[in-house]
Amino acid sequence: MRGMTAFLKKEFCEMIRTYKILILGSVFFLLGVIGPLTAKYMPEIMEQFLPQGMTLALEAPKALDSWMQFFKNVPQMGLIIVVIVFSGMMASEWSKGTLVLVLTKGLARRSVIMAKFLTATLLWSGAYWLCFGISYGYTRFFWDERTPRLGAAAAFVWLFGVMLIAVTLLGGVLFRGSYTVLLFTGFLVVMMFIINILPSAQKYNPIMLVSSSMELLEGIKRIEDFMAPTLITGGLLIASLIGSAAIFDKKQL
Amino acid sequence: MEALRIEGLKKKFGETEVIRELSFSVPEHSVFGFIGKNGAGKTTTMKMILGLLKPDAGKIQVFGESVSYGETKTNRFTGYLPDVPEFYSYMTASEYLRLCGEIAGLASGEIRRRSAELLELVGLTDNKKRVGGYSRGMKQRLGIAQALLGNPRLLICDEPTSALDPVGRKEILDILFKLKGRTTVIFSTHILTDVERICDRVGVLSEGRIVLSGEMEALKKQYAQDKVMMEFPKEKQEEVLAVLKAQHLEPLHTEVVEPSLEKLFLEVI
After folding, report:
1. Cβ-Cβ contacts under 8 Å, B51 against chain A
2. Which residues of B touch A106 (CB under 8 A)?
3. Which has fewest Cβ within 10 Å: A29, A164, A172, B39?
4. ipTM
5. How many angstroms separate the Cα of B37 from the Cα of each of B45, B168, B192, B213?
6. Are B9 and B60 in contact (CB under 8 A)?
7. Between these two residues, A141 and B226, which has the higher pLDDT value?
8. Which regions of B43-177 does DSSP assign to beta strands (E)?
9. Would you call A5 and B100 a contact, using CB atoms and an 8 Å cutoff?
10. Superkingdom of the source (chain A) (predicted)?
């Protein structure tokens, strides 16, 4: 346990001093601001681009438009940046051989996996909920209306992110280069999209957590519809963690 | 007591047999020079002693306890200095030692005391620079500090001097020499003068086996040649040569001794 705490401290020190917290923080801060602002001012921006004398009948923006921006930007831009930032989690240790010394000092191999997962998850959660909070604040300020099932939709995206972190960690244990890790995680996501072509598989596919948020907000889908993909995502998350620990135990350094 | 005992050790990487039937032992309190060419299997052997690589066959014991692959308990006895020690470049030396101490389970006061002592020993006191800006020699010295942090009974150093300039080499050897008698040191190298300087026992590794081993003194005696080297003051040289000539003593070999580059280098810097 002591070793784990020490290694956690080291991970946080790394996140701060290699500017990972700064990068994630600023990206997600921007994503939080940009959603409501584009939704609010989109009609005006569009007008600027139209030739003089032409008018375009645009509906007045609603709170849902703001959330549409959020649930488009975060999974597309945000999650990609999260995976890129954390793809080097293990790779930097492999390539430099820094683990040899701490492991021969008696650090349990499992502590390495757990500390890395916890750090990445905490950072993702912090950045994500900050982004959500900003988005929420602006949206309430501009429209002052409640959006039902918003919390659930947001939590699903968060869970999907945690699962991606676990998968990226597994990739980091399996492969030593950070590009291979990116490919591994990317491949998994592409597979989910391919599986989504089959109508019968759609309702179990974890990708639903990030691709159907708007349907949930608009009432086309119910929270219950998300139960199966949530369970599968959770399963994938736990399997990735157990797999990472088991494979890392067997790795020769 | 034996600090290390290796019996019938074997290791293959793919088709290449790196270690075949390796057996040797190192008594406590000795400084053991583990000699071999590049690629002879020195690092592989050391990594197996530390449980970082899995042997294909054979037994390794550290202070009578068997080494198991993975998380081996025997590592509490050992300190390890890899050939190119790598640290987290964003940390300072004392931060890194604190991390190591916390992992090893040392108390906070103990870590502070030992870190100060060791940084003094290796000459890195008051260094606020992050490790990323360290020279190779400084990294090697920090490597020794981290290896000694837990007061190990066995110190394993993998080519600690090979990558260093003569000054750095001398510094590292001096530090290791200071440990003599307190800590058992296993020290791999291909620089034979380093071995002569500090080791009292040697083992020569070739093609995965120990081909020569024993106490330095005994080996020197065993392979001694009846050769004598004498040094006379410059003004007497003519005289000596004249005496030799008068007595009809013809030397088999004469040479003019030139100052060694190492000596010159150490003098001018």
Report:
1. 104
2. 71, 75-76, 103-105
3. B39
4. 0.88
5. 14, 21, 11, 15
6. yes
7. A141
8. 57-62, 65-66, 78-81, 154-158
9. no
10. Bacteria
**Sign (positive/negative) of CA torsion B84, B49, B53, B96?**
negative
* DSSP category for residue B92: B
Taking an 8 Å cut-off on Cβ atoms, the answer to whether A10 and B53 are in contact is no
Considering only CB atoms, which chain B residues are within 8 Å of A95? none
Contact across the interface for A108 and B99, Cβ inside 8 Å: no
- Residue count of chain A, please give it: 253
pLDDT in tens, B237-268: 888 888 988 998 888 887 777 777 777 777 77
Secondary structure of residue A98 in the 3-state scheme: coil
Pairs of CB atoms within 8 A across A/B: 77
Angstrom CA distances, B249 to A40, B217, B245, stand at 108, 31, 6
Domain that holds residue A90: 2-250
Nearest partner of A32 among A7, A69, A79, A75, judged by Cα: A69
Pick B146's closest partner by Cβ from A5, A101, A249. Answer: A101
Average pLDDT over residues A54-77: 87
pTM value is 0.87
Rounded distance between C-alpha atoms, residue B10 and residue B19, angstroms: 5
Give B70's contacts in chain A (Cβ within 8 Å).
109, 249-250
Closest partner residue to B103 (CB to CB) among A98, A107, A252 is A107
Nearest alpha-carbon partner for B23 in B51, B64, B66, B61: B61
pLDDT tens across A188-240, in order? 999 999 999 999 999 999 999 999 999 999 999 999 999 999 999 999 999 99
Domain B2-222 has CATH 3.40.50.300: yes
The model's pLDDT over B139-162, given as tens digits with 9 standing for 90+, comes to: 999 999 999 998 999 999 999 888
* Cα–Cα distance, A253 to A90 (Å, whole number): 13
Which residue of B51, B91, B146 is in closest CB contact with A13?
B91
Closest partner residue to A102 (CB to CB) among B54, B84, B103 is: B103
- B171-177's contacts with Cβ under 8 Å and 24+ in sequence apart are B171/B123, B171/B137, B171/B141, B172/B137, B172/B140, B172/B141, B172/B144, B173/B197, B173/B198, B175/B121, B175/B122, B175/B141, B175/B144, B176/B31, B176/B144
Distance CA A7, CA A26 (A): 26
C-alpha B183 chain-centroid distance: 12
Number of domains in chain A: 1
